[in-house]
Amino acid sequence: MTRVGTVAVNTFREALRDRVLYNLVFFALVMMAAAILVGQISVNIEQIVMITLGLSAISIIGLLISVFIGVGLVSKEIDKRTLYALLAKPLRRWEFILGKFAGLALTLTVNTAAMSAGLFLALFYVKHSIERADTVVLVAVYFILLKLALVVALAMLFSCFTTPLLAILFSAGIYIAGLFVHEMRNMQAGTIDPALGGFLRGISYVLPNFENFDVMGAVAHGRAIPGALIAQNTVYAALYCAIVLAVAMAIFSQRNLK
Amino acid sequence: MAGIDPFGVYGKNESMAEPAIDIENLTKDYPYGFLQLKKRRSLESLTMQVQPGEVFGFLGPNGAGKSTTIKLLMRLVFPTAGSARILGKPISDIEMHRDIGYLPEQPYFYDYLTAAEVLDYFARFHDFAAAERRERVQRMLKKVGLESAGRIQLRKYSKGMLQRVGLAQAILHDPAVVVLDEPMSGLDPVGRREVRDIILELKKQGKTVLFSTHILSDAEMLCDRVGVIVGGRLQGVGAPSELVGLKAQGMEILFELPAGGESGDLWAQATRTGDRYRLQVEESGLYAAMQRLQAAGAKILSVTQVKPSLEEYFMHLVAADRAQAAAVEVRAK
User: Does residue B319 fall inside a structural domain?
Assistant: First the structure.
């Protein structure tokens, strides 16, 4: 596992030096502007607006990083041939994939943690206090992280066998489809061709269910998130990531690097 | 040292110790076309061995299969058929990589790292302690002449400097077998000289070096043996002198002509350089030519056997391969 860690730390260092965390400046600007604006126009809905806006920004920025950098994790190394010297070292291909995944997951964690701190600062600015109930926002942040890990795994999988552009399209497509899993499963009989309905239902069980990770509305209104859902989402994300990464490793282990 | 093996069992020498690199019928087809259903053979049943402590040059024109062979050995691509072992271990064994160093063709490294950082990164995969890593990194930077540039990010490096970093990472862990893909590529004369010195130093240390090149003078200068590959097929293996000796023919007479000496058809065939003449004749006609020169008052300075250079041998093989390919194409039409 030391070798996985070495690749992960270098991936994190790459993200830092490529100024990926500069997005935090953008996030900070959004939060500051929102806090000032909300303070002027909102009437007792400051918390809802700030939390919804903050979590949405954390999610969108994280998704952009996950897809674009996730796809580049493998494809850039192949295109630039930086991988050639590396794979001649005592490093297995699956260790490389796992290390890259862990490195970007670490980057996203640091990035998300910094944005969450920014969100709490903005909340404090508009509410002049942070209450114990506000910590439920952290659960939503945790769910966003789980979702991002899944997206990174998918982006890496696609980049193992297709071009970067297609990998971005596939990853984005799967993410969007994964937001409508419940709708796919609950199509009313008679509104759609039975064969297509069956197909959509089948697909909905294979697609990652991103709907389950969205608790933004509940959190914004200060409702608690059940522990069972936290456990379920954790296990689901871990299992799904493990399966996707295992497939990515299997494909990459057989790939010819021309 | 193994001699020339023109009968197909290239490079085999059963009497020697276990070869450092042992390649058996290695074949590689690359799929191509929209559906990747067609196949282009890049390497055809390559069988050869590199002995421990040997500097082996892998020669061939662009697209001959040199890099494919090296990538197969490094498991960057996978063989269609055949097998290979390095230091007795199958190339699929990850532990083999502890004892080999590899310089890719036109190497490129993480450009956000400095040379010292990239070497430290690679050293970590060999489980060196921090102090040893630092010591090795500094020693390698000095060896490849990058001591003063070790703290500069690689994005500011020239092609030649990257080549030096590549060489440093290949020998950083003191491997027993070093595989270099076009190590002289992109280097100026000083850089080429330094790489040659490093290869010779590796040889002195008893390392096995396999390197591909199309710079034949380097191969002639450095290699115990060379293998010539053309069109994916190994065409010959042997010491450079033995390979070119196969086709040795003709004699060269170096002589001076006294003032007022006779002239004639023999002089017309000679090449003049200052006061001296060089005349090439068939071995069978040497005696007669010398008699005629002496009768004309010429002073014979030396008589040497004419051997074609490795380049001529190489060009002969390339031309033969192209002629064969053209004939196959004509038959196919």
Answer: no
Q: Rounded to 5 degrees, what are φ and ψ at B31?
A: -75, 150
ipTM tops 0.90: no
Report yes or no on B128 lying in a domain: yes
**Would you call A85 and B121 a contact, using CB atoms and an 8 Å cutoff?**
no
Assess whether B226 and B281 both reside in one domain: no
- CA diameter of chain A: 63
For chain A, 258 residues long, give each residue's pLDDT as a single digit of tens: 789 999 999 999 998 888 877 877 788 788 778 877 876 776 677 788 888 888 999 999 999 999 999 999 899 999 888 999 999 999 999 999 999 999 999 999 999 999 999 889 888 888 787 887 788 999 999 999 999 999 999 999 999 999 999 999 999 999 999 999 888 888 766 677 888 888 888 888 899 999 999 998 888 888 889 999 999 999 999 999 999 999 999 999 999 987
CB contact (8 A) between residue B104 and residue A80: no
A18 touches chain B (CB under 8 A): yes
DSSP code at position B13: -
Candidates A82, A91, A257; nearest CB to B77: A257
Neighbour tally for B293: CB within 10 Å: 22
- Residues pairing with B50 in the sheet: B21
Residue of A nearest to B98 (CA): A90
Q: Is A91 on the interface with B (CB under 8 A)?
A: yes
pTM to 2 decimals?
Answer: 0.82
**Chain A nearest-CA residue for B179:** A88
Q: Please indicate, yes or no, whether residues B31 and B128 belong to a single structural domain of this protein.
A: yes
Lookup: tokens for B243 = 């390979």
Structural domain count, chain A: 1
User: What does the buried/exposed string (b/e) look like for A30-40 if buried means 16 or more CB atoms within 10 Å of the residue's CB?
Assistant: bbeebbeebee
Q: Is there a single domain that holds both residue B51 and residue B183?
A: yes
**Domain assignment of residue A207, yes or no:** no
Find the CB nearest A88 among B77, B97, B112: B97
Q: Do B71 and A257 touch (CB under 8 A)?
A: yes
DSSP track, A230-258:
HHHHHHHHHHHHHHHHHHHHHHHHT----
Are residues B109 and B184 both part of a single domain?
yes
